[in-house]
Amino acid sequence: MQQHTPGSFWSPLVLTAAMTAWSASGLAQDACIQSSCLSAIQVVSTTKTERSLADVPVRTEVVSATQVERTHAKDLNEALKYVPGLQLRPIHGKSGYGIWLQGLDANRVLVLVDGHPVSASTGSAVDTTQVAVTDIERVEIIKGAMSALYGTSAMGGVVNIITRKPEEPLSGSLTLSGGSFGAQNSESNPIAMRHLKGQFKINRERFSFGLMGDVRHSDGFSQDPNSYSTQGWAGYKSNLGAQLEYRPSEQTKIVLMPRRYQEDLLTKTTQRNPPFVNQIEKLDLTTTDYLGLNLSHELTSGADWQVSLMHEQFEGETQQNTILTSWVDQQRNTDITQKLGSVQFNLPLINHLVTLGAQVSEQSMNVVQTKRSANAPVQRIVEVDNQTSAAQEVFAQDSWFVTDQFELMPGARLHRDRDFGQHLAPMLNSIYRQKRANGQLNWRLGLGNGYRVPDLKERYYLFDHSHIGYKVMGNADLEPESSTSFQAGLEWLTQDYRIELSLFRNDIKNLIETDEDMAESAAQNLLIYRYRNFSEARTQGIELNGFVQLNPTIRLDAGYSFMQAQDRLTGKDLPRRPNHELKLGLDWTTPQPGLVVTVKSNYQSRQYENSDNTSETPAFSVWDLKANYELNRQWLVFAGVDNLTSVQKDFSVADSRPEQARYVYLGARWQY
Question: What is the dihedral of CA 531, 310, 307, 143, to 10 degrees?
Fold first, then answer.
């Protein structure tokens, strides 16, 4: 059995510390703060070709590198926490978070890095805390099943991380920060969490090379430091990645992208077993190796094609040891392999931009869980033996520029799954642009069909935690989900402000969720949760967001979301989906040169925690305070307080309030 060794943190730390620095952009005024610059911002997620953000038919939201740096985000989870209408929720049984969009959970949101999918660390949902943002240029977000260019994982939407391309001959950066959970620090060390990240890039005429590293080490935190239990993980999370780009000609580009993620995390809990109290240690060991290859070529006619290949191997080991009295050891080993290949061809034809493509994918899963009790032999209690899934998909999309003002974008995607047959998903989006002397008015309308087959975890996985009172069981009889997504929006852009009003509705058939099996729970005297299909569900609502540049030093932004999410068979609310959400932000460039102060707030209304609507989380608000001081072109110091008022969940019951209470930190960045 592998032991938890916090000292193993130092090997990735030394590797990261060896990489010195430059940052391609500082914390100067963000290029996308002024709405007049929106036409200059290029996005690729809508069509997989560069288009102006202000002109794309599919509503796309962007988080820029400056916004990420200004809020000191350590990972994708922290980079997205201020996006209106987007929720970040803990992944059951893991120490990470998944993305929820428009009431659709993380299993239905496709996460990409430069167009390549990130595999789900749990077999179903991508853990956003495992995705580093060290060399990020921007994050593009599409909500709902609005684009034919993405497959079954994108029924809820797409989050695409675009990495920064090297521009200078030599560049790099090094950032170090540390902070405290205050009275909840698990150890005596006042710096309870340390974070180090760096990047190094070389750019030449024919090739470029980039290397990035990111490592976080934490002592964890405990709501009651005098107890044995901890709520925050202790250990490390590390990312190491590279990007090698070779340009044999101006028209041809070959990009190789290897990445490795590792984590070694320890949490502690207690279990009452009268007359004893058992102490339980949980250790999560994860390694993910990714290799991506992209070949693209531009033709003299203006057309272009690209071929992408990827291979990702996930290896996870979870050890759970019950000590003191009647001890039980459990160990679960999970291996997931994902392979994907795609080809895409973009062809401009008079007033059309036609995109054609195909994709093949394969995934396999192996799971072995063993159990060993006092004075008892090792028992093999779970085995998923090389379960596989395979799919082939073809897609087509046409950006039809009917007039200078009006654009239609029809598309369709044909999905064929080895186990569930085939499904055709049509899409139609449009935009009508009215350019005026003082701004631009955009009308957007979209209709799309989403489709998703049950993943291997939902069909076969058994999450057996009988020794602490529950099981989560797979269901081989699940049916595929399908959805009809509708979106309509109105956007007004001027030089000093932007406001957008959007309506959405998602009608979902056979929505897959976990729910308690009451009869089985009574029979086994345990909480038994089982994946099942809800016959019909609906999420619908309104989003209102925008910003205003009050003067050269003050910028305000706000986003309000109202959502209803219901099981249409029972009329009850779907759990963990608040009706109201409000996000506010203020950026103040102070009279003191180089100092920027940022305040962020997030409010969520009450929400039910179960499908019977008998348990609920109360409404809450969270405030964050950030400050950045640029000493000169090379040095920047920063500080922040996350969760200023220390709002925290009750860990003894189902509760969707924040897990982490107040966190105070300091840091510095050096660039050459």
Answer: 40
Residues 6+ apart with CB under 8 A from 377: none
Residue whose C-alpha is closest to residue 603's, from 640, 647, 662: 647
CB 354, CB 346: distance < 8 Å:
yes
Report the distance separating Cα 662 and Cα 648, nearest Å. Answer: 9
Listed in sequence order, the DSSP H helices in 525-627 are none
Q: What percent of the chain stands above pLDDT 90?
A: 57
Among residues 109, 113, 85, the alpha carbon closest in space to that of 97 is found at 109
Superfamily of chain region 11-671: TonB-dependent receptor, beta-barrel domain (2.40.170.20)
CA dihedral 141, 143, 147, 150 (to 10 degrees): 70
What is the C-alpha separation between 186 and 457, in angstroms, rounded? 33
CA distance 127 to 94: 9
Q: Tell me: the pLDDT tens digits for 621-659?
A: 999 999 999 999 899 999 999 999 999 999 888 889 999
How high does pLDDT run on average in the chain? 86
What HEC string does 25-82 produce?
CCCCCCCCCCHHHHHHCEECCCCCCCEEHHHCCCCCEEEEHHHHHHCCCCCHHHHCCC
The answer to whether residue 159 scores a pLDDT higher than 90 is yes
- Determine the residue type at 625: L
